[in-house]
């Protein structure tokens, strides 16, 4: 059963990390090319941290549910800032 939690962290954690870093890059006042190297450097440790947290949770279903909700919220926020900033 631990593999299902790690799979949740690997798949949904990947999209969550991409969305979180994209949101930070979108909302940061500096131009995005200056943030590219720090974003790439911060991506892997953040992804590994999410996978570790998912592996430490006792039950599988809450991991998938929480990651799905977080992904939906962050992608909705990205979508809304895209249409608000244009």
From TrEMBL:
It comes from the Bacteria. The keyword Membrane applies. The chain crosses the membrane at residues 36-54, 61-80. Keywords: Membrane, Transmembrane, Transmembrane helix. This is Uncharacterized protein. It comes from Amantichitinum ursilacus.
